[in-house]
């Protein structure tokens, strides 16, 4: 952030006073714009849309094995391979006569 020197007239002392003000970041400027009710709605909406990715980051699934350090893809492939090797239990129905 860069600093900007501004001047303001002080009514009590009847003199100009200088003070440093930090320039806003791009996100801060967008936030000021969409919060400013004096701006047209189209400008405010555009500023809000542009600031969304920075205020609410996109959530993505990133799964990592806790102790092994494996990624989700490798763990899923291993699980699929294990399930393909599993044998189906074949059986038949046996009738039992109740006496």
Tag the structure with descriptive keywords.
99 residues; single chain
Characterise this structure.
The structure is a single chain. With 99 residues, this protein is an alpha+beta fold. The chain has a domain at 25-85. Helices cover 39% and strands 16% of the residues. The protein has helices at residues 26-35, 41-55, 72-85, and strands at residues 3-10, 15-22. Strands 1-2 form a two-stranded antiparallel sheet. α1 crosses α2 (41-55). The protein is rod-shaped and about 110 Å long. The chain starts with a strand and ends in a 14-residue tail after the last helix.
Helices, strands, pairings?
Layout: E1 3-10, E2 15-22, H1 26-35, H2 41-55, H3 72-85
């Amino acid at each position: 952030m860069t600093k900007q020197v501004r001047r303001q007239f002080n009514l009590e002392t009847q003199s100009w006073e200088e003070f440093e003000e930090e320039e806003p970041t791009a996100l801060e400027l967008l936030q000021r714009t969409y919060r400013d009710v004096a701006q047209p709605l189209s400008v405010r909406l555009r500023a809000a849309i542009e600031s969304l990715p920075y205020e609410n980051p996109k959530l993505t699934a990133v799964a990592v094995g806790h102790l092994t350090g494996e990624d989700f893809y490798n763990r899923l492939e291993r699980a699929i391979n294990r399930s393909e090797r599993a044998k189906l239990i074949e059986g038949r129905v046996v009738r039992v006569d109740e006496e």
